[in-house]
Amino acid sequence: EAAALAACFARDMVTGVRRIVPNVIVAYAPPDGRAALEAILINENLLWLEQRDEDLGARLEAVTAHAASLGFAPIIVVGSDSPTLPASSIESAINSLSAGESDLALGPTEDGGYYLVGLRRCVSNLFQNIAWSTPLAYQQTVRNAAHLNLRVLELPRWYDVDTFPDLLRLRDEILTSEEARAQAPATSQWLQAHDSQLSTLT
Question: What is the sign, positive or negative, of the torsion defined by CA atoms of 32, 33, 34, 39?
Fold first, then answer.
């Protein structure tokens, strides 16, 4: 069931991003993960990149460098665990970076990480010496950006789904917000089908 829910997250995130930009790269791991994702993300014209590094910073640097090598700019990276992320956050990042108003866009999460990173151009050393999956990740990235003289756009705070309380928060948002249901239809369908089970677990 967790895998099925994660598939819904991925489907909704890719569909949502495709409404905003034409080119989407799916960075996947392990090597045989692409086939499973292709079965989930049907009817989408996607680009693919295998993630080879264990460290999240190295993965972020690799995927942004790959996107830059394909001629894409600006470059926006989002995770798949914020399925109801408002499109306005992605659009704000793209507009600011495209206009040259900022060099780096970051969308902070409430646990100290971030749901989005956007770059006007590919930058080395931005993602080094960061304690990933800790409350320090966002502020350490901002520190690195300052050392690199990057102008930072801070986007509105949002949340990602890492824990069971996060999942319940997502469920409540889906149940009470028509906008959230429209943004994440696959996730919405899964949560509504499993609402009684989630209520029992609480």
Answer: positive
